[in-house]
Amino acid sequence: MLRYTWKRLLTGLLALFVLVCVTFFLVRLMPGSPFQRGAVSEQVVEAIEQEYGLDRPLTEQFAVYLGNLLRGDLGVSYEDPGTRVTDIIARTWPVTATLGILVLAAAILVGTALGILMAVSRRKAVREVISAGGMLAAGIPSFAAAILLLLVFSVRLKWFPASGLLSPAHYVLPVTALALYPTAVIARMTGNTLAAEMEKEYVLFARAKGLGTGRIIFTHALKNAWRPVLNYVGPASAYLLTGSFVVESIFTIPGMGREFVGSITNRDYTLIMGLTVFMGTVVILVNLITDLLGAYLDPASRRAYRRADR
Amino acid sequence: MRETVCQFIRKDRQAAAGCIILGVWILLAVLVPLFWPFSYSEQNAQIQNQSMSLVHWFGTDKFGRDLFARVWFGAGISLLIGMTSALLNGVIGILYGAVSGYLGRGTDLVMMRIADVVCSIPSMLYVILLTLVMGAGVKSMILGLCVAGWADMARITRGEIIRLKGTDFACAARMEGISPVRILFRHLLPNAAGPVLVNLIFLIPQGIFTEAFLSFLGVGIPAPAASLGTIIQEARSQMLLYPYQMVCPLLVLCVMMLALNMIGTALEKKVKA
To answer: pLDDT category, B92, cuts 50, 70, 90?
Structure first.
């Protein structure tokens, strides 16, 4: 376990470094100067570039950037020099994180429940409806779901407010829009693995002992069927972060996704870079934590880091 | 092989439905831009924001462009991006995973760690940065999708190859003195076709989804060309007045994704059984 932890940590750090490199050099490769606009003269642009250190050699800039990163300094926004990128993150991250956690919780709860229902229901109709619904939910892109929900439930029916995050009712539509896809994935996973678990001998034995189906599922089978769901939390967090780009701009939620979309349209390079590095780091961390947790719970998965020579 | 494909489609209703819908969608995406009386980019101030009619089946948008022509042109672009990126990712991933799994030992270790690193950064971020660097367009979109998309495929292929490497027939082939390359491509890979194919099919909707998503954000396909994502994005500013402008491309996109997912799921079930 210790060796696995070290190796996994090392991969995580390497991924972080690659993320920073890729972001830095790609942003520097972007055509045009971020300060070139309208009738600004050549001299002014050069002066500003000098001020920001953009005239120095690329390697030197990179070293400076790395040094600043290590001190937790992501620079100032080019668009709005009064604001630090870290301030923007501090302001927007809680909003996006709350939304993400709510979505994840909803997806896990509903998805697991539907999965159990799909695995144990004796009625064919129930199973068919859940699996068809799952395919439908997985086929709708998050932005499409968000727009349709907005059109139907807040414009036509006026059940829920359309923008902002002032009351719990404001959360309903964005959370639903984002949760559809992960819920469908989790339901399918739990359904499949649980159905396989229910065929195994230990379940048969528990039955012979006289345990009820509910007891068998919740104390025995679900524990084993839950592993793939844990593995899915990493990719799900990546999905949620990128999903927040559109859902936040559709529902006008003042979160990180909307900030990122804004930084792209404004070509605000420091902000793009800072937010990319931050979001990438979050996803890498979530992946790291779920992998370590998975390895702790299931020794067999540590084998992934051993050599495959036979 | 051809016979089993036909049999599979005939037996599985879900796969059949998916294939038929996908076929109709591809046909429409090819034929509508060729034979439809209106072009996807021609603007006409006289017919702005018309609702659905017999002349303009999906109505017209705010510049008076025929939406039926635009939607199917866009569906074509979306399908093109999805299929090309899936194919490229498939080829790269299969080769990478096969080599890694077959060589084993240190090579495998290094190659899989590289794949892990590539994989652990959300791919959407690469794609956005790349489209910003190279300028928006079909090419940069496909390239962006290929930066990270192959890693999952590589992992699956590697797992299969490692499993097959230990089988008796692989051992027998080695004892016969057949070259490793031939063993890999003639004996091992065909046996790994099932799971690999399933993953390949699922890569298509993923690519389409990413493209629509980015076009919706405004960093995808530039005007006057259109993909389903851009058409939806353009309709957003007046979605309360003319919801049909948004609903039509949305439905076309959703049905396309659904058909691909249906084929994929049916194939997955078949491979597992």
So the answer is: very high
Report yes or no: A141 and B263 within 8 Å, Cβ to Cβ: no
In order of start, what are the domains of chain A with their CATH numbers?
85-267 (1.10.3720.10)
pLDDT of residue B87: 93
Enumerate the residues of chain B whose CB falls inside 8 A of the CB of residue A144. Answer: 232, 250, 253-254
For A119-163, the pLDDT digits (tens) are 887 788 888 888 888 888 887 888 888 888 888 887 777 777 777
Nearest CA in chain B to A258: B217
| Residue B92 parent element (H or E) | helix B67-103
Parts of chain A with a pLDDT under 70:
32-40, 164, 301-310
Check residue B1 and give its pLDDT.
Answer: 54
Q: Which residues of B touch A287 (CB under 8 A)?
A: 120
Query: ipTM greater than 0.95, yes or no?
Result: no
Q: How far apart are CA A266 and CA B138, in angstroms?
A: 22
**Per-residue model confidence as pLDDT tens digits over B75-90:** 888 899 899 999 999 9
Strand partners, A84: A76
Crossing angle of the two packed helices B67-103 and B105-120, in degrees rounded to 10: 150
Q: Please, which residues have CB within 8 angstroms of residue B130's CB and are 6 or more apart in sequence?
A: A26, B140, B143, B144, B147
Q: Which domains does chain B have, with CATH numbers?
A: 2-38+60-272 (1.10.3720.10)
Residues in chain A: 310
Decide if A15 and B236 are in contact by the 8 Å CB cutoff.
Answer: no
Rounded Cα distance, A263 and B129, in Å: 12
The verdict on B271 touching A (C-beta cutoff 8 Å) is no
Please give the mean pLDDT across all residues of chain B.
Answer: 82
Q: Locate B182 and state its tokens.
A: 């031939």
Q: Is the Cβ–Cβ distance between A34 and A267 less than 8 Å? A: yes
Quote the pLDDT of residue B139: 84
B113 inside 8 A of chain A by CB: yes
The whole-number pLDDT of residue B128 equals 83
Residue with the two structure tokens 């400076």: A64
Q: Which of B126, B162, B213 sits opposite A246 (nearest CB)?
A: B213
CB contact under 8 A, B129 and A264: no
Q: Other CB atoms closer than 10 Å to residue A277's CB: what's the count?
A: 22
Contacts (Cβ under 8 Å, ≥6 apart) of A63: none
pTM for this entry: 0.82
Q: A215 to each of A109, A145, A146, A200, A203, how far by Cα in Å? A: 18, 36, 38, 16, 11
- CA A296 to chain B, closest CA, distance in angstroms equals 19
Place of tokens 């995580």: A12
Farthest CA pair distance, chain B: 77
